[in-house]
User: Fold this.
Amino acid sequence: MIFRQLFRNQDTTDLKNPSPWFKSLFGYQAASGEKVTVESSLGVPTVYRCINILANSVAMLPFQTFKKTAKGRERDKAHQVSFVLERRPNPYQAHLNLNI
Assistant:
């Protein structure tokens, strides 16, 4: 979501009045007046567990490399990145460690 906002054509802003996406990088001011950041929200067990469940689910999805062909696309097992993403990124990690 942040990346879409970063690379979209937008009006420029100055440092006195930054864009909302820039402010979101450093946290939000809650209605109670407390500043909520990524780090502080991960201190809440429910938030941490929800993010953990989502991250583990995404990590189970396969990473595959494809190449464009005249018919559309086809799997490219010969690509050098294919081995790193699908099997073993380095001698110390399995592919699941890379995804997480």
Summary: Residues 45-59 form the longest helix (15 residues). The longest strand covers residues 66-69.
